[in-house]
UniProtKB/TrEMBL annotation:
This is Extracellular solute-binding protein. InterPro entries: SBP. Keywords: Signal, Transport. Pfam families: SBP_bac_8 (PF13416). It comes from Paenibacillus oenotherae. The keyword DNA damage does not apply. The lineage of its organism: Bacteria, Bacillati, Bacillota, Bacilli, Bacillales. Belongs to the bacterial solute-binding protein 1 family. The keyword Secreted does not apply. It comes from the Bacteria.
Length: 393
């Protein structure tokens, strides 16, 4: 007779570490493998791009189907109703992280997620062989631009199709995407930021390239002096550039600081999974993710910033100069608003940036002015319908 082979139970975790420069997928897969080896359940990561992840979570309530866990940017906490997220008991996070970190995954007065990684902020990466020190002001970039352009080097690069990157320019002109909880984009500050980018790209001082591929490739190759990109790209750049890589704060513009958003990445529990038969397994996996072993895997293997306060303090004290700078930049950031209206903000800015390339800043601002009120009204109606439907369940 053949031996009885025990078939282990399965849990799935959705995530969006899908870019070629986002080495975080290596650690998530390793953590899932380690946990599966040590317990009587397999945890399987399932990758999708950010748009697919949002759509999938948004369909959980309709379909009744979802994973046991999802590893998401903190602004996806606003999917709590359509994704049927479980509220998180304090036993899973108590004493492990700061109130500010926990707040990134709170919405409607509830804790709907557990932060695992902090950061997600924009950074100025510079090539030390091109800039002797971090270009802290836009004026310093302009002063060196002509010589660099003559040498075939672009002074500065960014992915100007990305709304998240644009926030660095909007804030330098005094703007912020929400006011009194509603989108606030058809403003003079928005027009000034769009005009600045239009002027700088036309002059060749800024080159806009795909942030996941060309921008990084050309920066690593020494064809761009400095770039704006995310904290999450640090490990990829550090591996490829080593001593050539410098990390600095975002350059100020005309004396005004450029401020990045910051957020967290953490675990949410769709389809009320904490109340399911997997509840205890999920809690065990979360505690493993927040353990010193796993938090150091993120920090040491792929240079991410752990949410566990004790581990974070150790890293800040003992890390490399670049790593210490990366962590210290968090102090200069503003938390990303946790609001369902942020999806309108991102779409509106992305549309404006697309129009900016061909029709200029005035037309881009007109587009926002025309579309924003309609989009806000539609969002409010959708939120009201969702609330009404939830009350009847």
């Amino acid at each position: 007779m053949g031996e009885n082979i025990e078939i282990k139970r399965e849990m799935t975790i959705w995530h969006e570490f899908d870019g070629p420069g986002d080495t975080s997928i290596e650690v998530l897969e390793e953590i899932c493998r380690l946990y599966s080896e040590r317990h009587d359940i397999n945890v399987t990561p399932e990758v999708m791009n950010i748009a697919e992840l949002g759509t999938a979570l948004g369909n959980v309530r309709k379909t009744g189907k979802g994973p046991q866990l999802a590893f998401v940017p903190s602004d996806m906490i606003t999917y709590n109703k359509v994704g049927l997220y479980s509220l998180v008991p304090e036993e899973l996070y108590g004493g492990l992280m700061s109130d500010a970190s926990l707040a990134t995954m709170q919405f409607d007065g509830g804790q709907y997620g557990v932060p695992v990684l902090l950061g997600n902020h924009l950074v100025c990466y510079y090539n030390k062989e091109i800039y002797e020190e971090a270009p802290l002001t836009w004026e310093s970039i302009e002063a060196q631009a002509d010589n660099l352009l003559e040498s075939g080097i672009k002074p500065f690069g960014a992915d100007l199709s990305q709304a998240y990157v644009f926030i660095a320019y909007l804030t330098a002109f005094g703007g912020w995407p929400l006011k009194d909880g509603r989108p606030n984009l058809a403003t003079e500050e928005m027009e000034q930021a769009l005009a600045f980018l239009n002027n700088q790209t036309a002059s060749g001082r800024i080159i806009s390239l795909d942030g996941a591929t060309e921008l990084l490739e050309q920066f690593i190759a020494g064809k761009i002096g400095a770039i704006i990109s995310g904290e999450w790209i640090f490990n990829h750049l550090s591996r490829n550039m080593e001593g050539r890589l410098g990390v600095g704060q975002l350059p100020s513009i005309r004396g005004n600081p450029s401020v990045s958003m910051t957020s967290s990445i953490g675990l949410v529990f769709p389809n009320h999974s904490l109340e399911s038969e997997y509840g205890e397994d999920i809690k065990s996996f979360v505690r493993f993710m927040l353990s010193e072993e796993c938090q150091l895997l993120w920090a040491n293997r792929v240079q991410r910033i752990p949410a566990n306060t004790e581990i974070l303090e150790k890293l800040e004290a003992a890390g490399s100069p670049n790593k210490r700078m990366l962590i210290s930049l968090l102090k200069h950031c503003h938390s990303m608003p946790v609001s369902p209206f942020m999806i309108i903000v991102w779409i509106a800015i992305a549309c404006a940036l697309e129009v900016l390339k061909t029709e200029g800043p005035e037309r881009a601002l007109d587009l926002i002015d025309q579309k924003l009120d309609i989009a806000v009204s539609e969002m409010e109606a959708s939120l009201n319908r969702t609330n009404e439907e939830m009350e009847t369940v």
